[in-house]
Amino acid sequence: MTAQQRPRRRGALRRAGSIVAALALVAGLAACTPTADEGGEGTGGATGERGEELVLQFRGAPMSLDPALQGTASGSVFTVLAYDPLIYQAPDGSLQPSLATEWEFTNDDNSVFEFTLRDDVEFASGEPLTPEAVVASMEYFVAKGGGNMPRVGPIEAVEAVDDSTVRITYSAPFADAPMSLTQTIMLGNIIGPDGLADPASLLQTMDGTGQYTYDADESVPDSEYIYERNPNYWNPDAQMWDRVKVQVITDPNAVLNAASTGQIDFGLGSPLLASAAESAGLEIVSAPFYNWALRLADVGGEVNPALADERVRAAIALAIDREAIVNALGGEHMSASDQLVVEGTAGYNDDIGWEFDLEEARRLMAEAGYEDGFEMTVLDSSLQDQQSQIALAISSALEEIGIQVTLEVDSTSIPSFAEKAESKQYEAVLWASNGGVGNAYADLRSVDTMSNPFGFLDEEMEKLYAESLGLTGDERQAVYERMSERWQEVAVTVPILTQYFVNYVGPKVTNVKASPQNPVMLPVGPEPEYNWQPAE
């Protein structure tokens, strides 16, 4: 690696007028207002009374109703309502008992993990929760090989130890075992034996132990999904609502209108419409979440030979004026991102970060033989990058170093976008990651997926990742920070900005919480203190 390509310390960023101009029309849709307290503390506590109906919004149809195939983030609402996790990740990021009451590693190298099951639980079918049922569900999850598989660790075996204990044995140390059993990763969202007996049924029905049962007859696929309170739930005090409805609304303005008029109680908002939402009397709850990056997947140069040159990839990273993009978008609910993870999460490294340096970017392009630039196609999802605002900003910035970007925008669905990203037709994809370094890199290293369709793996990064899986605390943080540094050296992903979850909460609901450690806002948890509650 040349000296010019080493990680650069964070410094003052300069604005790029061309980016501001490119975004002026888009950003002018609305102004942002100051964010609610970061961490989204909400305003309420338990009222002692159950609400009649909670109506939520999601941007599209679920990836699947099967926990083994469902994605993470807010889309997991479709499954967590009906499937309890073994371990619950609370809004503050802490891990709390749910179907598992206690857990521990039983050896010194964090490769054998055991947990004890709650003994008063049954599935929607009426079958009891048993160690054997848990083993069968986990084996099914692994066999399906869904999108969360990169995060569940190198599982060698899952076995029932006795009538209340399950053991997972890993082929290598895996200190993230507890986290893999939360609603965030979903290995621990246990599917009942009746559902596993007919796996195809899991696409239309649900057999979980959750607070609600899915009503397929009342639901309308791709439009609204209905959940009724489970009368046999093991902790009825945690059931805050008789009924939950998830409505599919894709347009940001339609979401705001539905929230403002009381058609929905919770909506996935837009930073550009936050001011209008507050004016309409809605509470804004936000937390840092989406760490947007341009993923230069074609590191081998199969589609675009220019991207095989590390100097070109570094030039792309240096050509982005992140603060200019944030300012042009009205960035009260976003911040410039200059590395793999968001500040405040595991592995964030104060000593690194991409600076905006257009002169150096042009020099590197010339040195690599691309002084006149080249053409590049970028795949974007307008369902996530609303109106392709971030993609347009990147395109404008890269023009300054001669790179002509053609945007391919998918507006159909997230599964449609993922299928295109996996096709190897696109050398670069605009997408976001979340969580600490371990979580982000587990996704990025997953070969033959939308995150890594060309199968790039860096030997040093792989060694560091393997080392991190056996560590905890400060030792792990040190390795994570080196991983952040190394990922910047190879310049495979170009960080752009951190976009906050900006969500609208209507007057019927209180106690909606989030934090940088767990920014995903979901209405259910094993105890009332974690749950969205009806307002007094």
TrEMBL record:
Residues 1-36 form the signal peptide. The keyword Iron does not apply. PROSITE patterns: PROKAR_LIPOPROTEIN, TAT. GO terms for molecular function: peptide transmembrane transporter activity. Residues 95-447 form the Solute-binding protein family domain. It holds the Pfam family SBP_bac_5. Keywords: Signal. GO terms for cellular component: ATP-binding cassette (ABC) transporter complex; periplasmic space. GO terms for biological process: peptide transport. This is ABC transporter substrate-binding protein. It comes from Microbacterium lushaniae.
